Automatic annotation (TrEMBL):
Organism ancestry: Bacteria, Bacillati, Bacillota, Bacilli, Bacillales
Name recorded for this polypeptide: Signal transduction protein
Domain EAL: 90-335
GO molecular function annotation: cyclic-guanylate-specific phosphodiesterase activity
Gene3D superfamilies per record: EAL domain
Pfam families in the record: EAL (PF00563)
Origin species: Halobacillus andaensis
Length: 335
C-alpha cells in the first residue's frame, strides 16, 4: 500500500512489516501496545502485517490525540516517514476511497451556464464524479478531509476539470472549477501545478473561472484575497459561491470583490413570488453592480424564476431548467 504526502503528493510505500514509533513524552500514558523498544524519547512497536498495523492504529486512534504524529519504520529500521495518526488510520480503514484519490479516478460532469438575456450558453460548471466507485462527492471530500488527502483530491479534481474543458468545451466558452482555499498554503507555489496544467492542455486562461468552495469559516480574508489575486495575475477569473449561505456573506463580497458571484439556490427558489428573496437579490445586484461584478443565479428550476431573475438584472443562470450535469454537455438550450 502506498500513502501520499498531503502537502506535495509524494508517494511513499507503506511497508508490510515494520514498526510504529511514538513520541514517549506525549503518548506514554495512552499508548496501550506492546513495547518492543524504548529509549528516553521514543516507544517502538513492531508489526508484522498491514492488518496488524491497522489494529495498532485503531488502539492509538482511540486512546490518544488523533492529531498526533507518528513515524513508520521499515523492517530493518533504515527508513522512516512521519504521518498523522488519524490520516493513516482513515486511509487504511477505507483503502477503496484512498485508491480513488491516489489514481485520480475522476470524471467531470458539466452543467450549462446561460446568459439569461437570450439563453445562449456562456459556459459550464465542472462537477466531480468518480469513475470506479459509487461514491458521492460529499462522502469523498469528507473522507479526504479526515484522511489528510483533501489537497491531493482538490488538485486531481482540478486536472479532470481542465481536461474536460480541453476536450469538450469550445474555445471562448467558460468553465467554472471549484477549489478549496484551505488546500492552498502559499498561492504563488501551490498554484504552479494548476498553471502548468492550463498550459499542458493549451487552454486560454481567460476561459477559466475558479470558484471558491469552503464549508469552514473564512478566518483569513487576506489569504483568500491573495489566492484570488494570484489567479487573476495569471489571466484567470474568480467566483465566490453560495452567497447568502454559510460564510459567503455580502460582507465577503465587498472584501474579496471577485469577478463573479453565485447566489445560493435557497434564494432562487420561488424568487418570483417571495418578497424576502427578492429584497436580498436586489441588494446583491446593487452591491455587485457597484464593484463591476457579474451575478449568477444557481438552482433555477422554473420559467417563472428565470423570467423574474432576468427582469431583475441577473446576468447568468444555472439549474435544471436549462440542463442537468452530463459527461456529454449539451451545446444548445432547448426548453
Amino acid at each position: 500500500m502506498a500513502v501520499d504526502c498531503q502537502f506535495c503528493g509524494t508517494s511513499v510505500l507503506l511497508p508490510d512489516t515494520g514498526a510504529v514509533v511514538v513520541n514517549k513524552q506525549r503518548e506514554q500514558s495512552a499508548f496501550q501496545l506492546p513495547v518492543h523498544y524504548e529509549d528516553q524519547d521514543r516507544i517502538i512497536h513492531n508489526y508484522h502485517s498491514q492488518s496488524q498495523l491497522l489494529e495498532s492504529l485503531h488502539i492509538i486512534f482511540q486512546k490518544s490525540n488523533p492529531n498526533e504524529w507518528i513515524h513508520i519504520l521499515n523492517k530493518d529500521h533504515s527508513q522512516s516517514f512521519p504521518i498523522n495518526v488519524q490520516h493513516l488510520y482513515e486511509r487504511m480503514k477505507h483503502p477503496e476511497l484512498a485508491s480513488v484519490i491516489y489514481k485520480g479516478a475522476f470524471k467531470s460532469h458539466l452543467q450549462p451556464i446561460v446568459y439569461l438575456e437570450d439563453y445562449n450558453i456562456f459556459g459550464y460548471e465542472s462537477l466531480l464524479r468518480t469513475t470506479t466507485a459509487n461514491v458521492s462527492p460529499g462522502d469523498l471530500f469528507s473522507f479526504a478531509h479526515n484522511a489528510g488527502l483533501h489537497s491531493m483530491l482538490d488538485q486531481k479534481a482540478r486536472r479532470a476539470a481542465v481536461q474536460a474543458k480541453s476536450e469538450q468545451i469550445d474555445q471562448g466558452q467558460k468553465i467554472f472549477i471549484n477549489f478549496l482555499p484551505s488546500t492552498i498554503y502559499v498561492p504563488e507555489f501551490c498554484l504552479k501545478h494548476t498553471f502548468q496544467m492550463v498550459k499542458e492542455f493549451d487552454i486560454d486562461p481567460k476561459d477559466i473561472i475558479f470558484e471558491v468552495v469552503e464549508t469552514e469559516k473564512i478566518t483569513d480574508v487576506n489569504h483568500l484575497k491573495s489566492i484570488f489575486d494570484t489567479y487573476k495575475a495569471s489571466g484567470m477569473k474568480v467566483a465566490l459561491d453560495d452567497v447568502g449561505a454559510g460564510f459567503s456573506t455580502l460582507e465577503m463580497l465587498t472584501l474579496l470583490q471577485p469577478d463573479y458571484v453565485k447566489i445560493d439556490r435557497s434564494y432562487i427558489q420561488d424568487c418570483h413570488q417571495n418578497l424576502e428573496h427578492q429584497n436580498f437579490l436586489k441588494e446583491v445586484i446593487n452591491r455587485a453592480t457597484h464593484f463591476g461584478i457579474y451575478v449568477l443565479a444557481e438552482g433555477i428550476e422554473t420559467k417563472e424564476e428565470a423570467d423574474w431573475l432576468r427582469s431583475a438584472g441577473i446576468h447568468f443562470g444555472q439549474g435544471y431548467y436549462f440542463g442537468k450535469p452530463s459527461t456529454n454537455p449539451q451545446k444548445k438550450i432547448t426548453l
